[in-house]
């Protein structure tokens, strides 16, 4: 059983490290704040969660100890990282940070325009 658990531990840690490297590359290479927050929130969440799952499996199989703090950490990262990325992107948009020149569409501008037209038709 330890061979299978060792393989799972190594697999989760390597997948987590891979997504963490992808996050770092995305933060350096992507052109605007919106793309960067997307890379930071999505792939970093997956990377950290995989590393924490690998750590949980290690403690469970090798040490015989179920660490509830790691489980809480997994759920905390799962909930807060995407929400934080969304709030940072929304704050940047409301502050007037421009999209990348080659961005195809601005869905939030369309939504705001629709809401203004909807409010204007009420009165």
TrEMBL record:
The chain crosses the membrane at residues 6-28, 40-60, 66-88. GO terms for molecular function: sodium:proton antiporter activity. InterPro entries: PhaG_MnhG_YufB. The keyword Oxidoreductase does not apply. It is a multi-pass membrane protein. It holds the Pfam family PhaG_MnhG_YufB. Its main location: membrane. GO terms for cellular component: membrane. It is found in: Membrane. Keywords: Antiport, Membrane, Transmembrane, Transmembrane helix, Transport. The keyword Transmembrane applies. Belongs to the CPA3 antiporters (TC 2.A.63) subunit G family. This is Na+/H+ antiporter subunit G. The lineage of its organism: Bacteria, Bacillati, Bacillota, Bacilli, Bacillales.
């Amino acid at each position: 059983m330890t061979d299978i658990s060792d393989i799972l531990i190594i697999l989760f840690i390597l997948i987590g490290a891979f997504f963490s490297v992808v996050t770092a590359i995305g933060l350096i290479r992507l052109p605007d704040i919106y793309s960067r927050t997307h890379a930071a929130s999505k792939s970093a969440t997956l990377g950290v969660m995989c590393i924490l799952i690998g750590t949980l499996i290690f403690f469970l199989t090798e040490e015989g100890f179920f660490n509830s703090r790691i489980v809480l950490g997994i759920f905390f990262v799962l909930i807060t990282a995407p929400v934080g990325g969304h709030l940072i992107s929304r704050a940047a948009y409301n502050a007037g940070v421009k999209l990348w020149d080659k961005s195809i569409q601005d869905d939030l501008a369309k939504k705001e325009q629709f809401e203004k037209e909807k409010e204007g038709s009420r009165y």
